[in-house]
Amino acid sequence: MSMLEKNGIRAKGVQRGLDHGVWASFRAAFDPESNPLGVPIVQVSLFDSEDPNQHYRLGQAVAELRDQNVLIIVSGQAVHNLRDMRYSFGSASAMPYCTTFDEALRDAVTISPSKREQEMAQLLRRPDARRAHPSFEHLLPIYVGAGAAGEDVGERLWTLKEGGISWAQYRFGQVS
After folding, report:
1. Closest CA to 101 of 71, 125, 75
2. Which terminus in the chain has less CB density within 10 A, N or C?
3. pLDDT tens per residue across span 51-87
């Protein structure tokens, strides 16, 4: 909390269950029966805004946790248009905006850290942005991760585009 407050971010602690973005991701990776995680999880909520720079600054505010051996994991989607999924059921192809936005996200995330915040902010102004994300809550977590990355270059590890959805995984820095 103090990290957020010293960076001008008002915050308060609450106790509640895990958000579906945390629960679903961790449930898939760390099944409590076969592969229990066994470490504490602290989830941080997004702001009630679609301001990409505000979310990037949230990442910057918690970046020092990385120096304390805390792994910062963000969960969202590269493209998230469930409305268009109905048009693509049974087809292996992606909607055109799915491909263009997914590639633009890759370019913005993997650019030099000195240009990353500006390039990522521009993504939300692209003509295909609202088709890719009718609302940005599934995209904004990557801004938090990128902000926390500091000078580490982003790397796309994997992507899968289908219909109006794109699943992509990014990493900043190395895991030792």
Report:
1. 125
2. C
3. 999 999 999 999 999 999 899 999 999 999 998 887 7
Q: How far apart are CA 50 and CA 104, in angstroms?
A: 18
Q: Which residues contact 96 (CB under 8 A, 6 or more apart)?
A: none
Spatial separation of the C-alpha atoms in residues 159 and 114, rounded to whole Å: 24
What are residue 168's phi and psi, to 5 degrees? -140, 150
Q: How far is residue 163's CA from residue 88's CA, in Å, rounded to a whole number? A: 5
Q: Could you read off the pLDDT of 101-129 as tens digits, one per residue?
A: 999 999 999 999 999 999 999 999 999 99
> Which pLDDT does position 5 carry in this prediction?
92
